[in-house]
Amino acid sequence: MIWTGERPSVLAAALECAPSVRWVQLASTGVESYLPLMDQRIRWSRAVGVQSELVAEHALMLALTVLRQGTASVRAGAWLPRPAIGLTNAEVLVVGGGGVARALLALLRPFRVRPKVVCRGGAPIAGAEVGTPDRLDEWLPEARVVFLAAPLTADTAGLIDAVRLRSMRRDACLVNVARGGLVITDDLVRALTSGWIAGAGLDVTDPEPLPPEHPLWSLPTCVITAHCAGDLDHALGPFVDLVRRNIRRLANGLEPIGLVDPELGY
């Protein structure tokens, strides 16, 4: 079954009507909302790499907008020049080592940043220093820009809390293009209003959608987009490619690309 919908309850009903299904290909990278449906009877695969470049471009846009105080300029309603704060040669930390992280590192290369990556496996990534999650608290205080590109799991929920926000540089920028649950929202509001960090760029929030009255909307140091970094309509070619490859792999007795491990949560 190739699933391009967004509601797990509808997929659950579809699977009940099709008990012979043994493989489900999801169109999303994040799978946390589908985990309750997963059992040993069915193999599930996620759309790894399909929207990575789109999401990475969005992450870079958010970082540059926050660094250049773009939101404050737009809201000023007057000619108020902002500091020319650049990304070039900056210390950068990427949390997550998947397709988005790798696409982002490629986009950052012309900026000559000094990148570090924290990911569960700690496998080498060309052009970056890579460490396992136990390095996060060591590297977080060094980074000018922190990109969150990790899956939401039991281990990563609430990863960025008040303690970690306080440990960051006062001129740091936090960018989240992964899942809102990686950040404790109330702690982020406090960090931005108290000046613990310089700004945040958020494509995802917790809760989501973010209510109109939420204080994040009114903060000039916060840039918010409506979970639109990736879009299947604009990544349909790569998705179809992935589906073709996975069908061939299954036909040849191989596991699909992006096979989900329900215990890990991705």
UniProtKB/TrEMBL annotation:
Residue ranges constituting the D-isomer specific 2-hydroxyacid dehydrogenase NAD-binding domain according to the UniProt record: 60-229
InterPro entries the record matches: D-isomer_2-hydroxyacid_DH, D-isomer_DH_NAD-bd, NAD(P)-bd_dom_sf
Superkingdom of the source species: Bacteria
Key words of the record: NAD, Oxidoreductase
Name of protein: Dihydrofolate reductase
